[in-house]
Amino acid sequence: MAKTAAALHILVKTEKLAQEIMAKLEKGSSFDHLAKRYSTCPSARNGGDLGEFKEGVMVGPFNKAVFSCPLLQPFGPVKTRFGYHIIKVLYRR
């Protein structure tokens, strides 16, 4: 049976901006607020919420990060063909 996960993400065009957002998160900024402000993904309006998805559905580097990074902590930046992602995994099953 395929594993599933639920995650939030912030997608930006540059690694520099992704690093700046990670620094803001480390200082306690809200993931929801930063996703709405910076993310270029349509999920931004929902605070970056991608909902639940099965392993293998997302692009390779993103999928690998979601199914291996620590839970409930911002992780990244992860580079894909879409740009740079900061990922926060809510749970894995």
From TrEMBL:
Gene Ontology MF terms: peptidyl-prolyl cis-trans isomerase activity
EC number assigned by the record: 5.2.1.8
Catalyzed chemical reaction(s): [protein]-peptidylproline (omega=180) = [protein]-peptidylproline (omega=0)
Role description: PPIases accelerate the folding of proteins. It prefers amino acid residues with hydrophobic side chains like leucine and phenylalanine in the P1 position of the peptides substrates.
Record-given protein name: Peptidyl-prolyl cis-trans isomerase C
Record keywords, A-Z: Cytoplasm, Isomerase, Rotamase
Sequence similarity: Belongs to the PpiC/parvulin rotamase family.
Domain PpiC per the UniProt entry, residue ranges: 2-91
SUPFAM superfamilies reported for this sequence: FKBP-like
Flavoprotein is among the record's keywords: no
Highest rank taxon of the organism: Bacteria
Gene designation: ppiC
Subcellular location(s) of the protein: Cytoplasm
InterPro entries: PPIase_dom_sf, PPIase_PpiC, PPIase_PpiC_CS, PpiC/parvulin_rotamase
